[in-house]
Amino acid sequence: MNYAEIMKIGFVLNWNAHGCSNCQRSGGRCGYDNNEFVCFCRDGPHAKTCHDGVISAAIVISLTFVIMCVIRSEKLSIKFFSNMTKSDKDIEGFIRSYGHLHVKRFRFSGIKQMTISFKQKLGRGGYGDVYKGKLLDGRLVAVKLLNESKGNGEEFINEVASISRTSHINVVTLVGFCLEGSKRALVYEFMSNGSLEKFIYNENPMQTTPQLEWKELLQIAKGIAEGLHDLHRGCNTRILHFDIKPHNILLDKDFCPKISDFGLAKLCERKESIISMEDARGTIGYIALEVSNRNFGGVSYKSDVCSYGMMILEMVGGRRNIKVGVTNTSEIYFPHWIYKHLEQGCDLRLLHGVVTAEEDEIA
Hints:
Layout: H1 3-9, H2 20-25, E1 29-33, E2 36-41, E3 44-46, H3 52-83, H4 86-97, E4 104-106, H5 108-114, E5 121-124, E6 128-134, E7 140-146, H6 154-163, E8 174-180, E9 183-189, H7 197-200, H8 214-234, E10 237-240, E11 249-251, E12 257-259, E13 266-269, H9 289-292, H10 302-317, H11 329-332, H12 334-343, H13 357-362
């Protein structure tokens, strides 16, 4: 056979190239270069298909875009952080250092939506107004909108740090919070019966809210005590409330009491018996003497117990510790008032209309 003649005439050569069909579907022609498969395309040879270059370019463009966004985000973050007040920075620093919180962080637009632009006001606290709201899943909540001008953010940190450390049935549940610069809000579970103070004072003869029976008062007193015990001894970190009073005890639909408003709370190690405090905190009439004056001793969890005791006296007596509009100091301060009644031989248990032996035992 004359191979030279055959070469001059030419011949057809067929072979099976791996991946050739993919190359052809992408608009290319199969070939070889240095014994390596190559897909010849309009813009040049590619390793497998004509789309390789497009994909590579897309990847490069995407990575470039992502890098630019990250750089821009960092610049915006730095700019935003530099414009923040020291209070805002402290709070953001706390949120970051605290790690994963078991509560949701809401945007302020979400806060406005759940409260229908703060339509229904439930009451006013020491650090802001409280509004009724509803979550997307239908749950009712109470939203405390913190005052922008009051405090340095400590009350916000106290609330989040304290309540998120416990899940006791007698401590109000924190559902979430909002922190957008000076806009701060706290979202709690909704307590349909409001605060305890509505049910224990009988100062207004036109009052329509019924007073609680002795059994209910006893269960509420026990519940608050159990909640305080959990704060003081049930957590790894001891939580001192410093503002136990009827206004800060909320009641759910079954009159189960919940300790709320941790704006003045202080966290300390469980082994610490005496804690240091720079300033007095609490509400007049409930503050333990050592909190307002160090000459009476050191401040400890027992200071909460003193406030709790004053609240129990109010529940028994059916009147406020501090009575506004009374000029006689012996009638203003509740212990003086109690002492006066005991001196006169009055039975305090009759103030709530004790009539049966069982109620007498409870009282």
